[in-house]
User: Fold these one by one.
Assistant:
Number 1:
Amino acid sequence: MAAHAVRVTGLTRAFQERTVLDDLDLTIAPGEFVALLGRSGSGKSTLLKAIAGLDHDVTGSGELEVPQEVAVAFQDSRLLPWLRVLDNVELGVRPGRGRAALEEVGLKGRERAWPAELSGGEQQRVALARCLVREPRLLLADEPFGALDALTRIKMHDLLRELCAKHRPAVLLVTHDVDEAIELADRVVVLQESRIGLDLPARDADRTHLLSALGIGVAA
Ligand SMILES: Nc1ncnc2c1ncn2[C@@H]1O[C@H](COP(=O)(O)OP(=O)(O)OP(=O)(O)O)[C@@H](O)[C@H]1O
């Protein structure tokens, strides 16, 4: 097995005059779950897109090593409205594995539904199933639960934890939610001033410390 699921060295990305990522390094081990925090506009999505291979304008002395089997989940499920749930899940992959994946995310029986007939949480479950059928070695998730209500979010946390324990992909989860990061991840990293400023095991991560790293003061 490869020594790492992601290895980024010297990654730089600028938009016009503004350098968003500057000579950034990040390594993720196989099976490791990393939560990426950072202030709004700090470059979290930019980093995720670069790792996903969706950004061809990254520059610098950058070296990007990412496995072939990558799946990406976004805040909106990005399901195609004209395809039924099962066809969305199996889009671009060999048919046949979608039913099992839908069962894994608790949507057995909804294969023939249209995306518009599903709730937001159910649509995110379909998006997770779509990731699962790809058997990813790396799952990149950009605020996948950001638009969900609190209760649905808790259920999705449980589901993601369960799926990760079973399939063991490496995960890079972009989130605004410090508690979500500590709860789900093995390791928490914070983007600060265009680089990884803070990098620590989730078990050592302290809520107040992380909030202050994000520039959010907490009253004692
Ligand atoms: N295509 C683009 N063109 C110009 N500027 C961009 C582009 N994409 C991102 N940026 C800028 O880069 C910076 C980082 O954006 P990014 O979306 O990565 O931040 P983020 O940390 O994910 O923010 P948020 O938490 O608010 O989603 C922002 O200032 C944004 O305006």
Number 2:
Amino acid sequence: MKNFFGKVRLAEPQVSDAERELFGGPLRYDMGWSQHEHAGLDLTMGSALRQMPTLVGATLRMAWRADRRALVAVAISEIAQGVAAAVSLLAVNAVMHALLGTGSAVERLHELLPGLLAAAGVAVVNSALAGWSTSRAGRLEPLVERIATTQYLAAATAVELEAIDDPDFRRLIDIAQYGPASARRMIGACVSALNSTISLVATAGVLTVLHPALLPMLLVIAAPRGWGAMRVAQERYVSMMSWIEHLRASRLIGGLLTERTAAQEVRIHAVGPFLLDRYERMAHSAEAEQERLAAGKAVTEWAASALSGLAMAATYGVMIWLIASGHMSLAVAGTAVIAVRSGSASLGALVMNVNQLHEESLYVRDHGRFLEEAAERAIPSGGAPLPEKVERIVLDQVTYRYPDRESPALDSVSLTLPMGSVTAVVGENGSGKSTLMKVLSGLLLPQEGTVRWDEADVADLQRTQVFDRVSLLTQDFQRWPVTAAMNIRIGRPDHDARPDDLQPSIDYAGAGPVITKLTNGLQSLLARVFRGAIELSGGEWQKIGLARTHWRSSTCSADSILIVDEPTSALDPEAEIEAFDRIRRLAAPNRAVVLVTHRMSGVRHADRIYVLNQGHLAEHGTHDELIASRGRYAAMFAAQAAQYAPSAAIPNPTSPTVADHA
Ligand SMILES: Nc1ncnc2c1ncn2[C@@H]1O[C@H](COP(=O)(O)OP(=O)(O)OP(=O)(O)O)[C@@H](O)[C@H]1O
């Protein structure tokens, strides 16, 4: 037997065998939106109504900022519609009195004419008001969504990189993306809720004027409907939560089967038929779950309608008794029947609106929470100006630990980068090289120690000015889905560039042949996903990346730093030698170049080489000094040289090989 009055609980979803086999259990995303998934179960009419002012307040404030005239217009038209509903009921009452009054048929028709005309007039005015409200709300909705989206994007791009690396904050970014669309839907739900409330108040007012017993009757009829709507909403919410568990798993499989990156293994390893079979099995269990929930919903709706019907019958019974005992006229009873019907419809709609507002507000609240936290974690906008000329950039005893890590990625690292020099940083995987580059560029601020441009600490400097002096080419540099020209110009997007302006950067990077091959040259769109676009190979992209870096550094006349992190991983041997040569040539009196790479051949000509090991600075010096000291660098160099030279030609290092340490 279904327990109608117990709390709706979120049942642990059934896990199909296929899910267990593939994922070891249910697939639960660590995604932000799931954080508030249980908040929906707190959905009782009382709690939703109590929270209503706070929930609606934030959206209305946004709407007020977006277009206050449109907001006022919506409010006026909705209030006027409520008044029209009351006037319409009074007109109906007058018609009833005329219809059921005494006199000949012609006399009664004469008498009811004004009431009829009034009702028709009110209906016309009412529909005009509804149209006005719809058009103004239609203006507000996209405005509110745009404002909320802009706030979201602006806040997300303004936070420190450390926040982006923080899993908790990432979850918040993820969840907050749903806020703007919810804010837009809340406008519609607010308008509907206002409409239902005002209609209800108007109906209740008219009923009280007609007869004091009618208002309680309305409530008795409408209460079961309200309860039913709320109960169905809760069950729908729970249904969605259970359903979504299965949906995630089957969507993931569907995505994998059609993804380009998986296409080769899907075919060669026969992963396709295997995953398709598991997909079907998951779909079966998801369908069974949906069927079960649909049946439950049907029973709840039936129970709510039955209760409402019983209440209606009882009310009509009381009404008949009131008429029979002379306490209520037939005309008032006729009007009351109409009013009770429209009143209970308004109450049902109100319950649904409150419910929708509550659901949407969960996302809007997360959006607000994100904006608050993003403001706290934003890159400070103030700070001291960075001098045009500096002699060196110094890292002094820098320690950096990622928010979710126990041990530091960099531990008391010190190095000096004089302007005009080329510095190489080498080390095994995970030794902290990329982290060092992020600290150097001002993207991460060290927890201990300082990064200084001469004597000025980066933490005290205006960070936008620091960024302006940094050119960064990382191994996973962004392959923007824009034209080839824009992919280069985007290195300094606020600097206008004609194709001729970009030519030195293209020549520098050896990207000329890549561009020539493209159908529309520099104007070719580089994004496989769009029609007419072209996909470049990894090595070709690296040349575009190098051209972008050249464009960025060549458009900065002040003293600057150029950081290149694994720039040649996808280049063929010839192109790699050329690329290292080009990078070295970028060193200029007003520029310090830092090169991070695993390719030892590329670093031997650097002015200074720093070797990182598990976040510590293991050794530093020139290539010859480091080879002579037979330490870690010599071991790494020997290991790579051994791949190309006969073993007899390789010096025998005293320190352990890289493989011994891995
Ligand atoms: N965003 C991050 N969040 C948490 N830990 C990180 C993050 N990035 C790097 N780490 C950790 O910090 C340590 C140093 O990583 P880093 O990427 O700086 O090494 P690397 O020397 O550049 O490695 P590779 O040669 O493989 O690119 C590693 O243990 C890594 O797991």
Number 3:
Amino acid sequence: MHTDSTVDIGLVLPDLLGTYGDVGNATVLHKRLVWRGFAARVVPVAFGEPVPDSCDVYVIGGGEDSAQTLAVRHLRAHPGLQRAAARGAVILGVCAGLQILGESFTGADTVEHAGLGLLDLTSTPGGRRAIGEVLVQPDAVLAGAGEAPLAGLGEAAITGFENHQGRTRLGPSARPLGRVLAGTGNGDGTEGAVQGRIIATYLHGPVLPRNPHLADLLIEWVVGERPGPLELTVVGQLRDERLRACQRAASGSGQRASGASAARPQRGVSS
Ligand SMILES: NC(=O)CC[C@H](N)C(=O)O
């Protein structure tokens, strides 16, 4: 159980990394904590400010290549996030955030930029921009032989919206968040990355309002116990609507990812 009185949610560089409402991920964590009776606050960290290492959980969103390059320079110059990760802080990275948390990324400038080295992954530009709805089957269901399922995430599908040029290759220390059933994700049939208490994904939406089970997994890691259920009709409606849109994309178009997952049966896809 978390012992401090207040859960601090670090909102990392929302002025640079906040495309598609990604800052809403911090709002969702805050609300879902407060509704369960936890004291919580969002701690925005603006460009130019030092990065505190004291937060319990950090969210870092997406952005265009130029903003992403500025952001990584800032985060390397003020390594509070890296110190927090070393003591086990929970981190959610989205799109540019995913790439920044990795070992390196190459953007439109064709320069390889060093990342923060918190995730064993590298990102390089793909052939065409990946844009559209994404449907992901969590590895909790489709863990490979010898792989332990990602405890706490359950079988429910993850949905989101992607818009990125980068493709990401995971190293042996990271595992994917799931398998792509519609969309592109990492570009090899997998989506996102999990390593220790860090989860990263290409999914905007933002991802946490659309996937409350993912929000609650992060909260479980932060507070040290499984949070109780929240019955929120509007959240269920949003989830159902976005799942239907993703399933249409999965069954219809040429949006499917290249890679093994596209051929996998859609067993266990649930909300
Ligand atoms: N949406 C994003 O965060 C984009 C990330 C990165 N600039 C890319 O295009 O791959």
Number 4:
Amino acid sequence: MKWKIGCIQMNIAFGNPNNNFSAVEQWFEKAAKEQCSIVVLPELWTTGYDLTRLDEIAHDEGKDVLQLLKEQAKKHQFHIVGGSIAKKVNSGVTNTMYIIDKEGKLVHEYSKLHLFQLMDEHLYLQAGEDEPIFTLDGEKAGSFICYDIRFPEWLRKSVMSGAKALFVVAEWPTPRVEHWRILLQARAIENQCYIIACNRTGSDANNEFAGHSMIIDPWGTIISEGGSGEELLIGEIDLHEIDEIRSRIPIFDDRRPKKY
Ligand SMILES: NC(=O)CCC(=O)C(=O)O
């Protein structure tokens, strides 16, 4: 399976879902012109980290976001890895990613497992309970949100269940951009899989965000990498290449699970 991926490395209007909805529709037009087969959005793309106003601006069961993403996927005939949004549920607010296929069907939902205390997530959000694995075009993939990439065993679990591409959506700040780049490359190398990572750019009152979205192959080679500003980062991947890499260094045959 070959996929042409478009990562929407956008700035996010703080606490202003309507502005972000309009901006994303423009980005989708661009991605359609590039004939992308999968389009990826960043973390919390409708609100940014406006966590103190979540009562007012979080999305009730994600309904309005789902409607927009479903319409857009169908209109442009691409799959959408929908970044994440603040989703209001009975028990609180989750940081939730939707995967929509090109027919406009909700394929999968994943809420961030690891809350990032440095940005106060533990005070305003609740951790998810979902499994990250999903299927698109008959291929298994994994869904992860930002801080999740610091927990290699969480990503490995999806790969052990057959995921060949791991999608990461993020609001990763500039001071730790080298952690972002190195962790993503390491996750690709150790799992011999594709990593598609979409980060936001711009800033809010507390953080400047790094951009540097990345598409990385199973050898760890960077196929494409964004700069620090807004852009649609494009990269083409071929999932068949995974077999070649895994036969060159067969780490999945050489594992010693009884020892760890
Ligand atoms: N939004 C996040 O989860 C940020 C994670 C982060 O910055 C890190 O260093 O980890």
